[in-house]
Structure formats: C-alpha cells, structure tokens
What does this fold into?
Amino acid sequence: MKTYRILSCAADLLLRLLHGLALAEEERALLRACVVRHVEVCGDTWEIVVGTQTVMDDALIERIAAQVAANYQLSQVLIQQNLVALAPAVAPLWEQIVRDAAAGDAVLYHTLLQADYAVDGNVIRISAPGAFGAELFAQSSTAGRIEHAVRMHVGCACRVVCEESALSGALPSADWTPPTVPVAAPTKATASAAPARAAKNAKAKELPANVIMGRGVSGEARTLGVIEDEVKNVVLEGEVFDPQANQLKSGAYILTIKFADATNGISCKKFFSARGKTTQEEIDAEVERIVKAIGKGGAVRIQGKIEYDKFISDYVLFIDSMERRSVPQREDTAEEKRVELHAHTKMSALDAVVPPKVLVETAARWGWPAVAITDHGVVQAFPEAMNTARALAKKGIDIKIIYGMEGYLVDSEDDARAFHIIFLAKNKTGLYNLYKLVSLSHIRYFRGTKKRGRPRVPRAVLEQYREGIIVGSACEAGELIRGIVAGRPDAELEEMAKFYDFLEIQPIHNNDFLKFDDRFPMQTDEDLRDINRKVDELARRLGKPLIATCDVHFLNPEDAVYRAMIQKANGYRDAERQPPLYLRTTEEMLAEFDYLGAERAYECVVTNPRRIAEETERFLPIPDELYAPMVPGADREIQEMSYARARKLYGENLPKIVSDRLELELKPILRHGFAALYIIAQRLVKKSNDDGYLVGSRGSVGSSFVATMIGVTEVNPLPPHYRCPHCQYNRFIDDGSVGSGFDLPSEDCPVCGTPLIKDGHNIPFAVFLGFDGDKVPDIDLNFSGDYQPVAHKYTEVLFGKMNVFRAGTIAGLQDKNAYGYAMHYYEDQGEAKGRPYIEHMMRGCMGVKATTGQHAGGIMVVPRDMDVHYFTPIQRPANNMESDTLTTHFDYHSISERLVKLDILGHDDPTVIKMLEELTHRDPETIPFDDPATMSIFTSTDALGITPEDLGANMGTYGIPEFRTSFTQKMIDDSNPDCFADLVRISGFSHGTNVWLGNAQDLIKAGTSTLKDAISARDDIMNYLMQNGIEPLLSFKTMENVRKGRGIAPDVVEKLRAGGIPEWYIESCQKIKYLFPRAHATAYVMMGYRIAFCKVHYPLAYYAAYFSIRAAEFDANIIAKGKDAVRAAIDALLAEAREHRGKLDNKKQDTLIVLQLAWEMYLRGFSCEPVDLYASDAEKFILHENSLLPPFTAIPGMGQKAAQAIVEARRDGRFISVEDLATRAHVPAPAIEVLRTHGCLDGMMESNQVELFA
It folds into this structure.
C-alpha cells in the first residue's frame, strides 16, 4: 500500500486534530507548544511526529491517539515524540530565523541581529534596542514573525516576548506565563551568554588603535565593481566619508557613511542603541567617537553584509567592523631633491585640481627645499601656500615658497595670440611688480569672454615691471617651443630665447597631443624628444639654465580623472585623454630625461632648479600685521565723544558701572590702535543719519558701549537700567533678573518726576573684541538699500578713490556643480555608478576656482600713504570689463587682518523705516519699545482687529522682519513671548544652528527650561556662567567654544558641574553648532519692532511701505481684483505646497507671503485699487483714502525702466492714444500688452490717426 507524508507547520494543528478532547489548562498549554512536523499516512493508519520541548506522559499520548482515531475514523494512530531543546536548536539557526522573519526588511533584519535574546524554556525573550527597537518591532509584528520562523526551522512552537516595549497583537498577553511543567536545564552556552557579552563589552572598550568599530576586519577584500547582488559577508577596501549620525527620539542612532573604492560606491549603515548594561551616555560617546574617527574621510577596510534596503531603494552595506588602512604614499628618496618651478593649484580656473596646501605639504614631506606656485594668470593661491609653510615651520619643517605665475605674453595690446610665460618673484620688489602685472593684465589688457578670456601682459609692460622677476619660457604653449614646432629658423629661435632667464622643458608625454593633431608635424615620441633637445641646444648656446618641470595640474597620476571631469563639463571633447601632468619625484624626473645623458638630466632636473630656488629670497606675499587707515586725532576724539555722550545721558559724575565699562573698553581700543576704525564707522553712520536714514548695526558691534556712545549703534550693552533725560538720575538692575531694559516697568523719576527712559541689554564687551580686547573689530552696518551706493561713495571721500576697493571673493566649484560634473562624466563614459561613488569623485573637483566676485557690502581700505599692491593685486569682479568696480584680487578673508574691511551692507529695514517716517511724519526714534498693543501681535491678532480663524494664523507677525517666516511663527507658538527680551531670544534661536530644533524647543516643551533660561545667543552662556559663579575667563572660553560648534571639553564639563551648572544646560551647549550674537539679534529686533508698531498704529502706511519694498512679488493683477481673488490665489498656492510636501520654490514662497499680507490688509478693512496710468508711481505704493494705489512695477512683467519712462512722459500731458504712449515713453510692445491686460489702457485709442468717415 502506498505511503505518503503530509508536512505542516501550522501553529495549532495538533489541537485542531484533537477537537472534542477534554484537556486541563496545563495540558492545553503543553500541546500548544508542540509542532506537528509531519504525518505519515498509510491507508487508515497515521503516524504523527510531534516536536516538543517537554516529554508527554503515556496517558496523555494514549488519549491523543484515541481522539485522533475517533475524529478521523482511523484504525490506528501512532504518536512519536521528537524532544527539542530550544536553546541549542535556535542558536545555530538564529541568523536564518531572523532573515526569514525580516522578510527583506533590512532595517528590521539588522536591528534583530543586534538585539540580545535569551531562551527560557519555550519562551524566547528579545531585548528590543531601546524605544527605537520597540517601535520597529511593534510596527513589524516581529514576535509573530519570529514564532513562525522558529516553527519552520526548529520544528517546535515557542512564544516570543519583546521586552522593554509595549507591543501587542502578535505578542502574548502581559499575564501569560509558560506552563508549569518540567523543563530541561539551561544549556551551558545559554548560561554563559551574559558573562560572555560582558567580556565582549569590556574588550570593546580597549580597541586596537586601527579599529574604528567592531572587532577588526579579516578576510580578502573584494571590489564593489564585481558585486551585483546581496552578499552575506564581504570585505571591502576604499575610502569612507560624510558620516551622519541621526538620533531618533528613543535615543538610538542610525549612523550612515558613504564608502567608495576604485570601482564604485555604496551607502553604509550601523545601528546603535542602549541595551543591557550599555547606557545612553556610552552610546552617545561611542557614536561621537566613531564620527570623529571617520572625520572628513580616510582609507579603511570594512566588513559587513550587503543587503537591498527598500527604504532608499538601493543596496546598503550594514557594517560589522571597520578599521583604518594605511595607504602607501609616493616618496622622493633621492639623496639630493629637485625643486618644482611650474605648478598649478585649484586657483587655475577650471583647470588644475591640487589644493595649494596639499602641494606645499607634499613637497615638504618629500624633503624638497622649495616649490613654486605658478597658476594661470593669477596669484590667488599665495595666502594658502604661505599659511601652510608657516604651519609647517612651527613643526620644524622648512620649505620655501617661490611665488610666481604663468602669464599670457603678447607682443602688443592688439595681438590676438598670447604665449605662456613663467614669472617667479625673486624678492619683494619682484613681488610688487608681479602684483602690478596681475592688476594691469586684468584691468587693462584682459581679452575674450569672462569665461574664456585671458589676462594678458604686453611685452613692453613686462619690460617696465621686470625688475625682481625671473622669467621662464614655459611649456609647449610658450613662444619658444611653439617656434620650434613651427620650424622657425635658428636665428629667430635664438632671439626668442634671449628674452628669458631660463628655458623650460617637460616630460614628452605632457605634449602627446602634438602627435594626434594634424596641425603639428610631430608623429612619434622621438619627435617630442627632439623638441626638448632643441631647447637644450639653445640653452647651451646662450648659457641659459635649462629647467625641467612637470607643469603640475594634479598631484598623483590617478587624479587625472578629476581634471577630465572638469574639462569635459566645459566643452573639451578629448578630456578623457589627459596628459600626465602630475607631480613627479626626483627619480621619476631623472628617468624622464635620461635621453639627454645622465649629467645633463641631473643639471636640468636637480642642479638648475635648486639654483633658481636659492636665488629667490624668503618673503611673505602679504604683510604680517594690520595696516589701519590713519585718522588724525582719533584717540583723543573717541575718548572725548564717549565721555561727553555718557555724561549727557548719565550725569557729570558717572555711575561706577558706566565709568568702569568705558575704561574697560577704551584701554584696549587705544592700546591696539582701533580708535580709527571706530571713528570711521561713526562718520559713516552720522552721514547716513544726517541724510535721513537710520543705520542698523550687525554682528557684535552692539556689544561695545563706546560704539553706542559715539553713535555707531543704538544697542546699549549695559545692564538693564533706568535713566532720567532731565536730571540724569539712573538705576541699574544687574542681577540678571531682567533680560532687557525695555521690559522694565514704566516709572517716573523719583528726583524730578520726569518719565524715566528704559534701556540696556546686558551684553559683555568680550563678545566683540575678545577677552583681552585685542581682536580686530569687525564693524558691520546695515544701511538702507537706497542709501548704500551713497555710503560706498562716501568712503572715497574719506580715504581717497585709489584707497578703497570692494572686498573680492573667489567662487570655487560647490557640491551641486561638482556632482553634475562627475555624474555626467560617467554617463558619457557609459558607466553606471552609484551616488556614493559620484559624491566621492566630486570631492576631487570641489573648490576648484570657477570665477571671482565681490562681497555684498565689504570695502577694503588701504592707508593713504600706501599702494594697494603691497597687499594684493586688483581686478574687476568676474573679469567683467564693463564694470567700473575694482575688487581685491585675493579673497578678502586672506587679507582681512592686514587691511580694514568695512561692511557697508544694503538692507530693507532702514528703507522701510525711512518710507514710514515720510508717510506717517513720525520720527522712528520716538517709537517706544514697550507698547502693549505692538507686543500683543506676537501672540494674538486682537490689536489688528481680526480673528485668527479669518487670518489663518495665531499671531499678527506677517510682514514683520525676523518674525514673518513659518519657522519663526512656529517658534513663537511654542514659546509664547511676552516681552522684548523674549523676541531677542527668538531672533537668536532662528539664526543659530542646533540651537532651537532638538535643543531649546525640547527643553521648553518638557518644562526643563523656560524661554528665559534656554540658550539663544552666545552672550547668554557667558552671562549665565558668570552669574552662577564661574570664573570670567573660563566663562568666555566656554562661550567661544560653544558658539563655534566645538562643544565643551571633558575637564571643563567637570568644572561646570562642580560650579553647580545643571546637566541640561551643559548638554544643550554640547549640541550647538553656531550661536548668533545678542547684539545683532537686538539690533534686528529693534528695527522689526518699529515696523510692527507702525503696522498696529499706522496700518495703511505700513502696507504701502512693505509692498513698495516687495513690489516684485506683488501681483496687482490678482490683489487689485479684491479679497476673494486674493483668497483664491492663497488657497491655490497652499494646495500646490501640499502636493510638494509643504515646499514651494523661492519665487512662489515670496508671492505667498505677499498674498497673505494682502489678505490681512483686506480683513482690516483696507483695499487695493488697480494701477492708474496717470496717478500711480513708478515703484512706490500711494495712500489713497482707505486704499492703496499700486505702482507700475506691481504689474507682473512691467520693468523699472519702462515704469519710470511712463511717469516721466506723462508730465508733458495726457496720452492721446496707445501709439502716443509707446512713442513718448519709449515703452516696448511687451510692456504695452502688460498695461493693456491690467486695464490701464481701457478707453484709449490705439492710433493717433482719427478716422473722419468711419
């Protein structure tokens, strides 16, 4: 008779086979834990094989057999028990159990693998890794998945309990307990598991020096290029970069790292959570250690599992272990080293990829005595090269920088063809002349487009400034080699060569392109060698030094791909065919020129370059100290002005707190020569104020009481205080109980009864000039955007036209462009590369100079008795020859401690306030900062006379600087500000990094801190620590480290704890990456508050001023149609934002802000009229009874020039037709159509011709 087997792993199959059998609860629990592995069927006989952890007694076996036989009409039922010890059965299969339970969910798989588990009878207890693991297990029904997988693989039932979590559904109920039946003793492996883990943790704390995480890497490495699917255990070698530790609310971390080898890249992940005896603090420290160890990148060996991660739809390497890998570097082992005299850095625009720092460090590591910097047409790498050499000198490593340039030589200004030429500055005179050549070549002789143009040097100009410059013949693009290639006669070549101080040759393969270009006769390597032999012949004949150079554009041979990417993106069709323009060692160069003979090769590679290097003097390319402009009598003037103003405000007998502060500040200001800077700022601000424009201070200048007294800033940094404007009575509150003097209760003077003035914001001076007062002051000022050009012009009056230059900037390739270069390069090559690989490769392009520009408002001031070329060359921004602006050639950061930089920035707020003053006829300086109605709009809409429901916001801060974004409005909702100091704190929060989100916000919500205690600005830290008894210098240093994102060192943490500083405050400091200065926040809020005051008390004037500044975003075609049209436009934009996850592009976001403010205006009972051809202004809104009349520029598509032309033309009378308007105002056809669409031309004839007989 045929026998067959039925397989089943159904959890309750045995109980279902026994339906109708009366069972005690203990028996039912025991049977529930059994698994029917299979049933052998032979006719009417069944043999049931049962997997169980507990032996069933004979009586129970007999009852089971009888019940199954009765239920299924069988003649015989046999029950066979397979006894299973769960712990040893599960252990070897655990990874497969976890894999099946995860079912392709990579996050769940690796979380389960990292979780501890223990077997207790037939219960598997899994310790969920913190709240993160608990949440994950709950969402994934993990317990049920594990139970099913155990039945499949082990053949017995079990219960799974995920401890430390509140899971439901698949998990057993909280009151479930295993049956009280005898169970096998725990296995030896299980019993020793906990001590083993403890031992493992102890060892983990003593990792080998090269191990970053895990237990070290073992095994042979593979390359990503040959891996196409999931791999259980793999070792890779390559570079890691961009570590990101994302902490979940549970405290667990997901660490993501990018990895790339020579073939491809992959994202890596590692999970960390507190579990067992590992505390959260230990996990925090471990993650911080790993992120720091990886830093910006480095070579590693890494081991783990490659899985497909559905969350990012790509393969991910889940890390088990990672260790540092030492990568052999090329070394120069020659006894006498060469010197490179032709090397390009990232400052050779879109051409070379070597950072100046790396070039200098490599030359120093190789033991070279010197290295030259010779970028194309520029000297912008000099400051970085200088700083690198000085840093090396501090370590006892000496290397000379030879400051040079590869220029573009022309025979005359009109010459279309330029030849390459090498300039090396021999001494300070040569450096000055080199800077003059750079300036002249950029300002007078630049030819070509901004992108493809060249700063050329006419031969006659070079002769004029040749003193102190060593001139070389350069590469194949120099006139000498070009002449040789062209077959010029010897006499002509000899005449060319006489012009140079040395003749240059390069490795032949640098010029391989000559063999592949039909314009040149060279066809073989020997032809290329003959070029160099000819140069050698000329050098011998004329007694000129022959110099062998590399023409360095990248550091190592493999770096050629970075230059190829850049050139490919910029139109070079043969970019993939890169010449070997890398930095060669002495041995490599000697081998390149062995065809000249050993002796001659040594001369041109070693002897002659070293001799040139010895001829050049050591000097700095920029001065080593500050050269501030001289202001005669500045010391005396600043003292007299400060004390005069202080006595006027606080009385002849100054309060000690005032006199002490003045003395504290004036001593370092005078000692370090900063008085002139203060006086210069004072004159600029006074000029603007005299012309009717307020000036807002930026940065930390408001931390200086001297600056307040001489009128540079209106922020008063003294502690909150009262003062009487009549009798100078004063009273200070310096116990930290009040954040701003504006928040003090209003009082009358107890001496004379005059209402007291309230002032003071408690800002320490050290924030501005440092603890010792020796930091060069950076005085940033916000002028009205309308007035900024006047302020810039006034600097020429103060210092002289050739002594003020715009602060130059250098724009290097950034993430987006560099990524595009790399991605398109590999796409063109037909190679599929992962995003991590592209991100890895783009790093080789980042920072390469793309163009130049200018700081928005920075002015560099050269002392009257000095030439700018002692500091920097000059040029036009972006080489725009149509621009009249001249900028520093060096990035202004490089010379900011050598020349004074004035930040004369344009800002909307002073412009709005000027408009409001003109519209309301109220002096903005009379606006009080304690107006209850104004303060109320930061928490309600009552003062606006509308409801939050109608407005769609809980507050009335639309259009208020610092408080108009959704981010700051949410911040206001969370913090409920009720005073001026709170607004300053919110401003600080919004400008900081890691200050509000994940920090102060959480502390305030949890009730750990209040808005007043939370850290919002850098000054808060110094004030708080000092008020709590921490020593001033330590308080200052702590503030400085925290504001720069450096955190607090462990030894300082202990000192703070000993001083009673609460743990939450220290932890808050540790999270901060950047902190805004309170003085800056205070100045911003003061401006914003004045505007808010006008919004409440002068509403129509406010809307007119605001919309005038925002006319570009104001759409009169919508807003002039009325309230319903505005609402519909808002709803449409909000719907679009919802479709794009709450995001709009910048233009639409700006339009939404203006529409919301227009909606508010309508709700308050005001309206907007259509643009009127005869009444509207070109750019400003006009108050017209209870409505606004928009300007022409409020119509989309109407430009400023056309708008002004219409206003000018209508002064000569009304327009008789559209044709007349277009003719008299010179309005182009598109602008005419814009006016027609808006309705401005309704009723107007089209033509000047009148049809008499229509």
Observations:
- The chain has 49 helices and 34 strands.
- Confidence is low (pLDDT under 50) at residues 165-204.
- The two ends are 114 Å apart (CA to CA).
